[in-house]
């Protein structure tokens, strides 16, 4: 199972805080403000509960999207930055590039 964190917050300090906390839980960066956590369902539930507490009171748009591995694998990447090529290689077990 996967959990994706996506955020759009106005203050850099809040962005850094969300990033650090999600990475501390085992999440990895996919794009500038999109992170992915992979784990067993009970681990994903733990991450969701924790991030709900962490994000409480932070202004902006903060979303957690739980999904099955097959949902992530079915994505269609239309274009990507050259700097993300290495990141995709690191996440190849999660991502299928068409």
Descriptive overview:
This protein has 98 residues and is of the alpha+beta class. The protein has a domain at 2-67: Alpha-Beta Plaits (2-Layer Sandwich). It has four helices and four strands; from the N terminus they run βαββαβαα. The protein is globular. The two termini are 22 Å apart. The mean pLDDT is 86.
Write the layout of secondary structure elements.
Elements: E1 2-8, H1 12-24, E2 28-31, E3 34-38, H2 41-55, E4 61-67, H3 69-73, H4 84-90
Antiparallel strand pairs: 1-3, 1-4, 2-3
Please describe the structure with a list of short key phrases separated by commas or semicolons:
single chain, 98 residues, alpha+beta, Alpha-Beta Plaits
